[in-house]
Structures are given as structure tokens and as C-alpha cells.
Amino acid sequence: MALSYLEFERPIAELSEKIEELSHMGSNAAIDIAEEVEKLIKKRDKLIDSIYQNASRFQISQLSRHPDRPYFLDYVPLLFEDFQELHGDRAFADDAAIVGGPARFGEHAVMIIGQQKGRDTKEKVKRNFGMAKPEGYRKALRLLQMAERFGMPVMTFIDTAGAWPGIDAEERGQSEAIARNLMELASLKVPVICTVIGEGGSGGALALGIGDRLYMQEFTTYSVISPEGCAAILWRDRAYAEQAAEALKPTVKDLQELHLLDGVIKEPRQGAHRDLAEAASLMQQTLKPALEQLLDTPLDRLLEERQSRLRNIGTFHTAS
Question: 0.90 exceeded by the pTM?
Fold first, then answer.
């Protein structure tokens, strides 16, 4: 499968192409070029570390929606067993932008809910580019209530540019559907773990983002709006997206400084989009002990700590 590269990743792509070309030559020639290939590989590794460790906020925003980045359904078979997808909100329709159902995580039965964007054009249209409508959030609400009824912990996976802003969504009560989810999640009587695996955009992300723990993968973002959307509003020009990203501070490092996160899930050297299996393994290493800890917490204490966490989240300064 051909790999996609962002503009700032192009130097990595060029070195990779040289390595592949030399490796192919070596297998078809009498000369041994293994030493030269080894030098190029070391050079590429240093370049990878330099580029990703020093990525700007806007570059990380681009990585969070990289065309090769794994989506929720890519992780499901690697993290869970016996997943049974459930459909519909029992009121209007089934929204394919949100996928969920019971599954087994290790020895525990859990309810998993995630946002799904789609790969090719047909699937992107079907899933509305991962931007849910009210029926999507009401489907999620139905699954949350089912999880509570059967005593199943909830694990949500966030990856959306935001809730669908179309007039059809507004007509069916988009804001009410999101607000209802926030209220229900705040008092749900089972453990809730939320993980950002791509874009965490606006209320569309927050509707699945209230819980006992919030984790983010290393190259993801969580913000009230995308840099491009912010630039279009403030400067009326998307060319200012880089400045907007600096102002929004949407990265893992920024949210850690604001005390909004419970932990960061490391990614493979070049990001989750280059090694799905390792990305899933790293995610499991964080989520499994977190779930065990929450399951060992008495319900009254769990709800008390969740309420306290939500009331005290973030930091702010008042002008003197």
C-alpha cells in the first residue's frame, strides 16, 4: 500500500525512497551496498526523531488527521474481542459516524463507542466524514444507558472535526443531543474511559469525552475548533491556520500544562499512522490498568471523584 506523506514529512519520504532503491539494486547486483543502506537508515531515524519531536502545533494538528492515521474500527480487532455493533437511536435513524456496541476487553465485558471517518469517498460520505448528527449522539446515549443497565464499563474513542453543523442536524436538536450526553455521562453509574485517537473537535468530541479518565495519543489534538476553522472566523482567511493553532494550544503538551489530561498514550516513532499494531499495543498498556483501577473503585467514590474532577478541571487566571 502506498504511503501518504504530509509536506513536512517529505524529507523522510525522500530518504525512504533512496533506501528502497538502493536495497533493490543490492539484491540484483554483485556489489554489496549494505553499509550504505545502513548509513541511510540511521540518517533517516535521526531525521524522524528530529521532525516529530520538534513538530509545531499546526503540524501536530495535521498529524491528528493524517490520511493514513488509524480510525476506531482499525483498533477494534486489535484491542477487543467479540465486538457486536449495534445500530440506530430508536427514534430516527442509524448514524454511521458513530459506531458502538458490547465487546470484550481482556476478561471484562465493556461497551465501546467511537467516531468513524471512513477511508474512500463512498465510506466518507456514508459516515459523513466522522461528523455525527443528533441521531448519532442519541445512539451513543442508548448504548451508554444499556451499559449502565448491565453494569458494563464504557470506553469511548474520539476522532471528529466536530458535530455536523447542517440545518438538518439543527432541526433535529443537535445541541440538545450533545448536552444530554454530557449530563448523562457525568452521572453514569459505571466507569468511563475516554481516549482521543485523532481530532478532538468541539462539542462533537466533548459529547463522548466526559468520564473518569481522559487520555490522548501523542500526536492528537483536542480543541474547540480546528486551526483552519478558527482562521476562517478570526482572519477570514484559512492561510492563518498556523497562527490559529498557536493560539488554540490544542496539543497533548498544551493540555497537560492546563491539567486537562489524565495521561498521554505514546505512539510509534513515526506516529500511529506508520505502525497500527504497535499503536494498539501502546494503547492497551495504558487503558488496561486504568480500567482495572476504576473497577476496583466503589461506585459512590467513583461518582464523587468524577464530579470533583469535572468541577475542578483546567486552570485559569483572573485579571487583577
Answer: yes
